[in-house]
Amino acid sequence: MTTYRACKSCKRIVEKGRKCPYCGGDLTTNWKGTIVVISPENSEVAKLLNITTPGKYALRVGK
Ligand SMILES: [Zn+2]
Known about the structure:
Layout: E1 5-7, E2 13-14, E3 27-28, E4 31-37, H1 44-48, E5 55-61
Antiparallel strand pairs: 1-2, 1-3, 4-5
The structure holds zinc ion.
């Protein structure tokens, strides 16, 4: 079983590594919920979370 991490900055879910490959932010295992964004411009949730790039994101990321 893999422990996925989420980026504290952009909320991207990252499978491996210590830094977010998308924005260079710190990763955390303290996150909940996933959302897969396919077309950010058509997704209300993506707008709420300020997501502009398709991908897999965490709904909540802890400190
Ligand atoms: Zn990031």
